[in-house]
Design a protein that fits this description.
16% of the residues are buried. The protein is an alpha+beta fold. A five-stranded antiparallel β-sheet has the order 1-2-3-4-5. The protein has a domain of 85 residues. A hairpin with a 5-residue loop joins strand 2 and strand 3.
């Protein structure tokens, strides 16, 4: 994003009570971005990586804690559409898990559980040491 456009978008976001700032380019990157400070101490860094699509990295104390995935067709957005996307983004939506919460078979279905409960340690020891 060019500097002039970033400043226009930030000014409009501030008019909508979004705590936004122009994010200056980093070494090796010539694009400006937009930093949005979130109420819980995180911040969203929008469009600072030089890619065409609009996306954000969610940071807390300099550590990546989430992201807003690239918005389809956002490379053609005007200022108003960029403002709307940033102002209405769901910064709390989960973006995925490193592993499924329940074990899955290769078919994607959870495994079938047996009808009877697992034996307790005492029951297993009794069956092992029957004499």
């Amino acid at each position: 994003m060019e500097e002039e456009r970033a400043r226009r978008v930030v000014e409009t976001l501030r008019g909508r009570n979004v705590f936004a700032h122009v994010k200056l380019p980093q070494a090796g990157i010539t694009q400006y971005g937009i930093r949005v400070v979130l109420p819980d101490g995180r911040e969203a860094i929008w469009d600072n990586d030089g890619t065409a699509g609009l996306e954000a990295q969610i940071m807390r104390n300099g550590i990546l804690v989430g992201y807003v995935a690239s918005i389809p067709d956002s490379e053609n957005y005007g200022d108003g559409q960029i403002v709307e996307a940033i102002a209405t983004a769901d910064y709390d939506r989960p973006v995925g898990r490193s592993r499924p919460s329940t074990p899955r078979l290769p078919t994607g279905r959870p495994p079938q559980t047996q009808g009877r409960p697992a034996a307790t340690l005492a029951q297993r020891l009794k069956s092992t040491f029957k004499g």
